[in-house]
Amino acid sequence: MIEFKNLSLTYPNGLEALKNIDLKIEQGEFVVIVGLSGAGKSTFIRCINRMTDPTSGQLLVDDEDVTFLKDRQLRKLRTKVGMIFQDYNLVKRLSVLRNVMAGRLGHTGTLKSLLGIFPQKDLQLAMDNLERVGIRDKAYVRADQLSGGQQQRVSIARVVTQQPKVILADEPVASLDPPTSHKVMKDLRRISKEDNLTTIVNLHFIDMAMEYADRIIGMRNGEVVFDGPVSEVTEETFEQIYDRPIRVDDMRGDETDGE
Amino acid sequence: MANNRGDKNEKIRIVSKKFVVRTIIALSVVILLYIAALYRTNADPIRLVRGFGIIWDMVFTDLLPPDWSYFSTSFEYLVETWNIALLSTTFAAIVALPLTFLASNNINKNPHFYRFVRSLLNFLRTIPDIILAILVVAFIGMGSVSGIVALTIFTSGILAKMLSETTEGISQGPLDAVKASGGNKLQIIRYGVLPQILPYYASYTLYVLEMNVKASVVLGFIGAGGIGQLLNRNMKFFRYDRLSMILIVLFVTITLIDFVSNRVRGYLE
Predict the structure, then answer these.
(1) Is residue B22 part of a domain?
(2) Which residues from chain A sit within 8 angstroms of residue B166, using beta carbons?
(3) How many domains does chain A divide into?
(4) Which residue of A189, B151, B183, B219 has the fewest CB atoms within a 10 Å radius of its CB?
(5) Which of B176, B181, B198 lies at the smallest CB-CB distance from A79?
């Protein structure tokens, strides 16, 4: 469970990225955050694993106040909260398997990890997760040999191998074409449901948000302007969130587009 | 108005008058510098032409034929030079690695400490290797150990400087990924940074090895061991036949090392 209590974040340049956010996300929910670029979606997500630091209020993860965690406690939080990035953030020169094993670092002792010694059961876990995203046969291929969609699946396998309780995904499909975007989102949703993970995804495509979310949170100028189950969301809701009429490029398109 | 279009009889130049004036001034300054240099060094063309005769004699009566029997001695000292270069490069590579991370602003986030390490590296590089070697020889005496110590100090600075510039240019993404999965600083370096800089690390180390082979020859002259010491000794005794043997050995070896190293580095980068 994640709870925002009156959380605000003001950047040193004076930009108020988050304004008094108050909400609760239950374990196992698949939440999509929508909003235009600059609305504060990224900042919202990056507060939860403290890749950015809130300036006031309180943030609870698993009933633990994480607002001011430091060093060891902070790393412990981050092993519980995994992250997926827009540009995959794989080490291109390393094999797929090594990249996936990077997800185990938080659980591996420093000395052992520096020497590159991983327990057999962790390697097994990594292989199983590659299987779940359908690219087990690529385990020993260099990451840069893979297509964008495959690389993003490697990063899903990496984050699941971390065995987190929460997955944060910051625009995970923004660099992919429509059919690949859908495949990646399907994998992400399936796996997070199988493992009962809380998943929070930033998207700016309306149709994808509607298709994959349980719950949608709309943001504008650092404020939450909508929060509700996907069944309550209509086109007007998005017009309200975006503060303008819906346009064609707010849609990703369906699975046959661009093929 | 006719004035606006200019005088039709006036020649059109490809460059502006200002450019011509500036060029003439610059050229005059350079020529003056040359004249001053000639005057101060008492160089005159006639001496230069006469000098060719001396060079001729030097090459064809003194240096040639080489004393082929001196090959084994030359080779023995060459091996010492190679060993000095190899050991100092190895030590430098080991010392440079932690220095590199301290001298990279995307890893060492403390601005004061970062600037201190950077200044230290810059300071190390301003001392010419030969001065460093003279100091080290004064401290620990003649011999190859002095050469190794001097070259290790000198080249670890160079290596760390080159490598830290590469490190500051790597992509931040994989570092964020390791950090976001709960990795500590050392794990970030090992799994985010190291894989990205490894080919450059190997390449720069080879480049430093090339440098160290040449530098250790020179250092031999001031008593830091190796084939330079042999070269110096034979020059003092006017044994130019032996000198030419040493030079041939050196030429072949350094060409070979440079060739191999360049090939490998081309493959790495």
Answers:
(1) no
(2) none
(3) 1
(4) A189
(5) B181
A216: CATH? 3.40.50.300
Interchain CB contact of A90 with B (< 8 Å): yes
Residues of A in contact with B174 (CB under 8 A): 89-91, 102
Number of domains in chain B: 1
Of A186-195, B70-79, B114-123, B147-156, the poorest mean pLDDT is in B70-79
Domain span including residue B230: 70-268
Whether A184 has its CB under 8 Å from any CB of chain B: the answer is no
Query: Which domain, by its residues, includes A127?
Result: 2-250
Contacts of A155 in chain B (CB under 8 A): 177
**pTM exceeding the 0.95 threshold for the entire prediction:** no
Closest to B187 (Cβ–Cβ): which among A88, A94, A113? Answer: A113
- Start-to-end C-alpha separation, chain B: 63
- Residue A257 within any structural domain of the chain: no
Give CA–CA dist A238/B160, Å, rounded.
53
Is residue B114, in this structure, part of any structural domain at all?
yes
Interface test with A, best of B101, B175, B181, B190 (most A CBs within 10 A): B181
Please give the ipTM for the structure prediction: 0.86
Supply the CATH number for residue B187's domain.
Answer: 1.10.3720.10
Enumerate residues 6+ apart whose C-beta is below 8 A from B195.
A91, A93, A94, B174
> Cβ distance B246 to B66 under 8 Å?
no
Q: Is residue B35 part of a domain?
A: no
Domain assignment of residue B124, yes or no: yes
Does B193 contact chain A (CB < 8 Å)?
no
Q: Tell me the average confidence (pLDDT) per consecutive run of 10 residues in chain A, 259 residues long.
A: 92 91 93 90 93 92 90 91 93 92 90 90 94 93 92 95 94 90 93 94 90 93 92 87 84 66
Show Cβ contacts of residue A48 under 8 Å, excluding neighbours closer than 6 positions. Answer: A2, A59, A61, A66, A81, A166, A168, A200
Q: Do A78 and B174 touch (CB under 8 A)?
A: no
Find the distance separating the first CA and the last CA of chain A, reported in whole Å.
Answer: 39
